[in-house]
Amino acid sequence: MWGRIKYFGRETVISLRRNLLMTIAGVITVAVSLALFGGILLLSRWVDHGTERIKGGVRLEVFMNVEATDGQIADVRSSLNTDPDVKSFRFFDKQDALAEFKRIFRKDPDLVKNITADALPTSYRIVPETAEKTSNIQNRFEVLPGVDDVATPEEALRGLLDATNTARIIFIGLSLILLMSSLFLIVNTIRLATFARRREIEVMKLVGASNWFIRVPFMAEGLIQGLIGAGLAVAVVVALKVGFDRWFNSPNGFFREFYLTTADAVTVSIYVFVLGIVIGLIGAIIGLRRFLRV
Amino acid sequence: MLRFENVEKIYKGDVAALSDVNVDVQKGEFIFLVGPSGSGKSTFLKLLLHEEQPTSGRIIVAGRDITRLSHWKLPQLRRNVGTIFQDFKLLPSKTVYENVAFAMEVIGRPKHVVQSQVPQVLELVGLESKSDRFPTELSGGEQQRVSIARAFVNRPLILLADEPTGNLDPANTVGVMRILDSINKAGTTVCMATHDGRIVDAMRRRVVELDHGRVVRDEVRGLYGEGGEQ
């Protein structure tokens, strides 16, 4: 068994070196396309976190007084239920508010430490029937008893959400095209490798080497290209995560609600890695298909 | 050991390369396959190696009908059938020893078996002193002996030889035939396609002659031309 592993390792390294330029081209394209893909996933998550409040078309937030009575809160709810301009709404209790507060001010632990759920207001997040109804609703609810304020989340955030949705489609399209070309490059590298070793392959078939035995070094070659490319792309993803943390960390800035967790970076890295492995293996399989017919 | 039953082979849209071929070869036999170019000798050997499929009929190798062999069992057939060619098909980047060892390594034989078998087989073909040479440093006869060693090192039941002496001078031809003869005497069935009448006449073994894809002669102790024992 050990002898076999050594054999496969040796053959793979020889083959990778023989086609060094093609190998490098393959690795770089895999890396670039996966980095683009990982980068856009990361950006999407960053925007998702930052725009949670306006997800699903929320344009209004009715904040109750901190001391508002349950009766006042219930009255506002029934008004919302009967208001013809309100399409839907959802209630944020004090615990929800605390969770959001902690998230927004995560870089300010002193502030978070001293806050309790009781000190925070409850609120309603409202989706109007049409965007034009926003100010009507605002005017009607501002004056209800127990209501502190009716806020409209920044329009700029909404613009950003739309822009990133467009960017997401464009960049995912671009990275798919690049992923295809990296796949073709790997296919080509493997074809060249089988061509360079056609005498060995002929002899192996002649003496009865199993198909798997012949294929494994080439599969390993494709896999290694995919893995190295994915490794480089993961490095880019990690660098982006660190960069996002550093560039947008002002507690009062426009992007204060935007953030990335370590879990985000890990998830994206796993996607990138799996995709790299899949591209390498599929490239090798396609590259081997034609040549290995007896 | 090796049987063709009513075998017919028609290449795409062309005339029959083999038609109604019936040949039965016993274990340990040595047969010559003779006939002019295009008579079907190469097709005969390709069918045995499963490189081509017969259009109809059955081919039995070592008790197994190889016309219904599934793709993944093909390596097993190839391990039972050693092959040598006119152009040797040696790997130029490997030494004599490595060329022979390669045939064992790629079917997963353990290292200690390789190390004990390869020198034995090289001795059998008389090349033990040249095991570190590269193929380009050898004469044609020596290269063919290396390829015999490679074909034989895994102890196949059958050895197929396609014009093995086609590129060799008479002295080297004799050397190669001696080795094939001794391999045959040790129990391996040998099937050799050749144009070389002198070899056939000297060996006096079974001769199967093909012409236009048909068996026109099958003699137990034959000559290259007509006139052997029926």
TrEMBL record, chain B:
ABC transporter domain residues: 2-230
GO cellular component, as recorded: plasma membrane
Gene Ontology MF term list: ATP binding; ATP hydrolysis activity; transmembrane transporter activity
Pfam families (UniProt xref): ABC_tran
TM segment ranges: none
Matches recorded under SUPFAM superfamilies: P-loop containing nucleoside triphosphate hydrolases
Recorded topology in the membrane: Peripheral membrane protein
Protein family: Belongs to the ABC transporter superfamily.
Stated name of the protein: Cell division ATP-binding protein FtsE
Species, as recorded: freshwater metagenome
